[in-house]
Design a protein that fits this description.
The protein is mainly α. It has one domain. The longest helix has 29 residues.
Length: 171
């Protein structure tokens, strides 16, 4: 049965906080990002608990989506209309033969990197242009999201290989 690995999604949803702590540290890109964003340390002070909680909730949504980007077996499920209960034997045979194919950290990271570079970067760049932000801001922000979702996708796709979880039980 095709199942969602909620533990992998939960772990991946914590990645934006961890990479953000490193990426936006003043010793790396934090000072430049604040300057390019028009922010100050005083403006950044305040209650951050709500920001972090809502960030994790939004990161859960991103992680949930990334499984469809990085795990090809969800495509096979989509080809039968997403109704595995009424699938024919060819679907189960396919999943028996290919249910573990391309399930690695590297494969998930590759697909997520492509998503970051080819989808997230253009979105960030378009917004930054209309907001009249600099290319420094654009590259720091898009770079953060590309690195972050690359790691997230690797975790989501690679977890299967690490824990031996079986997706499909043939009828």
């Amino acid at each position: 049965m095709m199942q969602i690995n909620f533990w992998a999604i939960l772990l991946a949803a914590l990645v934006p906080l961890i990479t953000g702590f490193i990426w936006y540290n003043p010793r790396l890109f934090g000072k430049i990002w604040m300057q390019e964003s028009g922010l100050s340390e005083d403006k950044m002070k305040g209650q951050m608990v709500g920001v972090f909680v809502f960030s994790v909730i939004l990161s859960l949504l991103m992680a949930f989506f990334l499984q469809f980007v990085s795990i090809h077996q969800f495509g096979a499920l989509g080809m039968i209309g997403g109704d595995e209960m009424n699938a024919n034997q060819s679907y189960y045979d396919f999943m028996k033969d290919y249910g573990k194919a391309y399930r690695s950290f590297g494969h998930g990271a590759l697909h997520s990197f492509m998503t970051g570079f080819l989808f997230v970067f253009p979105i960030v760049a378009i917004n930054a242009m209309f907001e009249r932000k600099s290319w420094k801001y654009t590259m720091i922000t898009a770079g953060y999201w590309t690195v972050t979702i690359t790691i997230m996708g690797g975790i989501i796709c690679g977890w299967y290989a690490a824990d031996g979880f079986h997706w499909v039980t043939p009828k």
